[in-house]
């Protein structure tokens, strides 16, 4: 089975993106791996600190191992938006092979020190590290960034940042935000193009839910190799479960009321894999 590094590097060489789906429970996990297997797509399963706490790190690792064994496609279990480097280190020791250290809220030099420490540690375990330069808007679980705190990635700093942190992939802020958009998002494609010309590691797009398909396609064309999707899965899943429970007020069997949620989520997962261009890559 190819490593997380190779999965993103293959995407970079062949100009597509690997979708990274945030999951929260068994049902989400199943839908993501089943759909990816059906479409022969590599996939990243992203777990935030809240998800690791909720689902249990050991269970997530075992589910990923079982999925890889069953489906024989690259399934990468990834820690998303982790801020505590000691927590990341202990999860790497436990078996996580792909992590994001999010020190984007720190000032530049501190972001470098923290990201570098994590990447040094991770590489001893053959784990790969994503870090963020710039600051994305919106809310992702424990991290909320107000509109006036957002700042886009400065292309003049990306080479210095990558060289000094030794990270494996870079999350960029080019105008996307976590969650749904209050106003139509305006992405800075020129900035992305400039960054892409300067770097030779995979670039990551956070906040991809609720973006027009054309914007995602352009981002991939201009150098994005990992597309993070959370909200667009959560919303239809909950909507479908809610509707089922309202329509069946006496239902108490999770296998029955979770199923419509899974089906609603499956449609989006399939759509996003196709959008990323990762279908049939394995
Ligand atoms: P969305 O919720 O906008 O899809 O953002 C997901 C994300 O960036 C996870 O890290
Ligand atoms: Zn994110
Ligand atoms: Na979003």
UniProtKB/TrEMBL annotation:
Positions annotated to bind Zn(2+) 2: 102, 132
NCBIfam families: cbbA, PRK09195.1, PRK12737.1
Binding sites annotated in the UniProt record for dihydroxyacetone phosphate: 179, 207-209, 228-231
InterPro entries, sorted: Aldolase_TIM (IPR013785), Class_II_FBP_aldolase (IPR050246), FBA_II (IPR000771)
Gene Ontology process terms (BP): carbohydrate metabolic process
Alphabetically ordered keywords of this record: Metal-binding, Zinc
Known cofactor(s): Zn(2+)
Catalytic machinery residues: 80 (proton donor)
Official protein name in the record: Tagatose-bisphosphate aldolase catalytic subunit
